[in-house]
Amino acid sequence: MNVNGQHYRTIWLNADGWAVDIIDQTKFPHQFETVTLRTPGDAAVAIKDMLVRGAPLIGVTAAYGMALAMRQDGSDGALSAAYDLLVKTRPTAINLKWALDEMTRALTPLPAGQRSAAAYVRAAEIAEEDVAINQAIGRHGFSIIEDIARHKKPGETINILTHCNAGWLATVDWGTATAPLYTAHDAGFPIHVWVDETRPRNQGASLTAWELLHHGVAHTVIPDNTGGHLMQHGLVDMAIVGTDRTTAQGDVCNKIGTYLKALAAHDNGVPFYVALPSPTIDFTVLDGVKEIPIEQRGGHEVSHMTGRTEDGRIETVEITPRGSKVANYAFDVTPARYVTGLITERGVIAANRAEIAKAFPERATQ
Ligand code: MRU
Q: Any idea which residues carry the catalytic annotation?
C-alpha cells in the first residue's frame, strides 16, 4: 500500500539482493523506519520484539529467516537449528509454524549447496501467495459489505468495526480484515471504520489508524470498551477482525478483546466476520479455548505507555501504581458459534468443521 505516495510492502529484499528489509512497527505511528535483517537471529529478534507482527507477516519473516540461515550454512544441522530458533519466537500465530514447515518441506530433499537459492525462491513465493490471498479476501469481503448495504441502508455509509491490526502491516500487503475495506474504498463505496485502540500495545490506534489515514479511508479511533455501546445504538453495521489461528471447527483466536466484541455483536445482531488466509487454519486443533497456547507478554506493556509529547519527543511513561500486579494475555478465543462467517481466499464460509474441510480439503486431510 502507499506511504506518502510511495508503494511499500512490509518486507522486501535489500538492494544487496540477499538481506531482508522490514518496517520497524514498534516506531509507529510517529516514526517510519526500516531495518535490515542479515541473520536468522535478526529475523528471530524482529518477530519476538514485534518489529514485525501480525500472523501472516510473522510467517513470511520466518521464511526469510530460514533463507538467511541457509545462505550462511545449508547443512541439515543449520536447517533444524534455524527452525528451532524461529518457531519459538511467538507461540500463538500458527502461520509461523506453517511457513517454517513449508520451508522445511521444500529444502530437506535438496543437497546442501542448493538450499540457499531454493529458500529465497520459496520465501518469495510465500510472500506473493499472501498478497494474492488477501486480494481475494478483499473481493469476497467487499461482496458482504455490498450485501449489507443493499439490504439495510442502500446508498448510505456502512460502519465497520475492527480490532487490533489485521491490516497491510500485519501481512505482506492489503491485510486480511482491511482488504475488504480497501477494496470497498477503492471502488468508491462509502465506508467508515471504527478502530479499536487495542490495549495494551495499541495496534489499532498506532497501526490500523495510520494505515487507514494514509489510504484516505474514513475512520475513528475508539477506546476498546466503546464497541458495545456503539452496537446498542445501531452505529456498527458489521465487524471484521483478523485471526492468529483458527481451529478446524472454526474457533477463532485473535488479539485480546476480540471475544468481547463478538459477544456484544451477538447480543446486538451485528454480523461478526473473521477474515483469514488459509495458512491461519490449524487443522490439528479443534477446541480453541482448551487447545491454543495463549501468549503472555511482559507486564511493561500494560504498566507503561509510549507516545509523542507536545514538543515532539517520544517518551514512555508509567500509568499504573508501582506495586500493583499486571497481567498481559495477548490473545483470546472466540468460539465458532459467535462467528457469522469466515472470509477466506476461497469465499465466505460458515465457521464449522464440515464447511472448513470442504473449502480446504487438501489441508484438512494432510
Ligand atoms: O500481537 P500481534 O500484533 O501480532 O497480533 C496481531 C493480531 O491479533 C491480528 O489481528 C492477527 O494477527 C491477524 S493479522 C492479519
A: 244
